[in-house]
Amino acid sequence: MEKTSVLNMRKSVIKKDYIERTYAGWLGKVIGVRHGANVENWSYEKLKRAFGEMTGYVHSFRNFAADDDTNGPLFFLRALEDYTYTRELSAKEIGLTWLNYAPDGHGFYWWGGYGISTEHTAYENMKHGIMAPDSGSVKQNGIAVAEQIGGQIFIDVWGMIVPGNPELAAEYAAKAASVSHDGEGIYGGMFIAAAVSAAYTATTIDEIIDAGLSVLPEDCEYRRMTAAVRAFHKNNSANWHDGFAFVKSHFGYDKYPGHCHIIPNSAVIILSLLYGNGDFSRTLNICNMCGWDTDCNAGNVGAIMGIWAGLSEIGEEWRKPINDFLCCSSVIGTLNILDLPWCAAYISRFGYLIAGEEMPSEWKAILMGNGAKFHFEYPGSTHAMRTATTDETHVTASIENSDEQAASGIRSLKVMFDKVQGGHAYRLYHQTYYRPHDFNDSRYDPSFSPILYPGQRIRAKVLNPQDAAISVKASLYVMDGNENKRYYGEPVVLEPGAWHELSYDIPFLSGVCLEEAGIEFVPLEGWMSMLVAYVDDFSFEGKPDYAIDFAKERLEVWNSLHTEISQFTYLRGLWTLEEGQLSGSYSAGSAECYTGDLDWTDYRFETEIIPKLGEGHYMLFRVQGGIRSYAAGLGSNGKLQLLKNDNGYTMLCETDLPWKAEEGCPISVTVIGNRIVIEHEGVELVTYEDDDRPYLSGQVGFATMNGSHTHYNGFSIKGV
What we know:
CATH superfamily of the largest domain: ADP-ribosylation/Crystallin J1
Number of strands: 31
Oligomer: single chain
């Protein structure tokens, strides 16, 4: 990431409540998307017939699966980390960020067809060398494709990173929107980003709308529409239904080309902001009841209103079903299991970096990713923690964010179990891997890699309150989902009134998939008693040390069109399990799948490659996405090859290694800093130092290239 200060930029004074408002804005975004998701593309009439006047969520979910409206903002924002956070960031670099983090043809976006789905069209353009901003231009794609709704639905974060600076927000947003859109599509992105930025400092909704308009050309359709809706509202402010009738009559879908034009949906956003009268819930409900592209519109409105109204105005009825959990569907499986406090910190960090301002001392470690993974410092935050028990009686468990106790900072998580019995186990845990049964649907085709692995360490601080009714012991644990087996750290009897730091070094394990990491509380006495504990500074850290046996993995079937290999994501190609082995094949180019953590640095990675057909069989390491990685493996003419992917593979070096189809070939790669060592059967064959922008961290994976078919007979990885 670029570390230089931003030049020629209007100085921004970030307010004290910036971080909390960003959390509220991102929470509002997620709430809006969830609120509208299951009624997307319903008409106003259909919604009114089914639900009447909405007052809250109209559907419930075990967990809400991924959505393009939340995928796009978080992953496109990674351009600030991968390239530069200054205003020198280019549309081309944001476009490359698309290619790096989005799977090719599945998940993440609506892949509705070239020339139909704007995002699909832009991705294919860039994949074939038509880079941004040409990838989204009217000149390349025509006006109908270029002016669809996507120009604004992914854009909220570009306002969140420059609070109180609508002009700069619009500048970033124009570049981001131009990857896939043009014309009114870009103007919509500029409007939303400027409105989001203004929401941090505005005192009225009209100020927010004015700020959005201030960055647009005088003669654009977006301005004309907004002026018309505002004029109607001024003379007809009592009934939003009349307002929607006006919008449908003057700015309906029938007035614009394409599948989902930006203007009709933007009119719904303006309408709901005006008729919502500054109330978070009323504004979101009106927006959703209008119909059309409900999740997109309510997501944008939720971001604006969350920031403007603040956390205190977002009721528990909106927050509790989300529980701070966010599911995504990028190619990086560990980034598909997120919690909203992490998202807010990631976004807010750029706000301070761009403004050139010092981060608040109490937040700096959290914003920079150096603090506890789960810190509970945002009011009401839960970090997607969950509860479970072995007690078969009617035990009620609850968690709540609390300022009553804290090991560090000012908040912790309070967990309560009523009617507990001695000798039973009561658990607080974070889910570290998800499977299809954890969701109601396969929205945007999520897939996952665990966010915790054998070899790593988990830590947490726990307090049994001074006035505790019972004596309790606590231990950290992890659960292997493949065998439904738990592994425990040393138990500690909690002295009332004292914080205890628990730590557990997970041993080397083979053939496991860690699905839970948590704290198990066991009462040492009592019957029908209350168990209360406070938890703070829960963290994962350290290097991996484990092995995978593909015979123990499974095909996870979400629906007839969505099947994943457990613990893996994939970029493209046919990936499955055959004969207890991983199998990959593809017609052309590179088929790739990945697992592990983006932050892994130095490690030894071993596998057995079994070439079945063709001359392109590789293991991948230091994988940072679809266009950044290294590959080592079996190429043409009996060669062992080392390749580097920088939006296309190039040869770094090769050496002789005669190999035969159907015969297993053990290969190991050790990476330390920029030094790469490749061995075959313990013999060092390649040593290479990459001095040209080396990749210093990343996942592991596998690739089959040039029309090949490859099997892999398990693998192991150990941090060094």
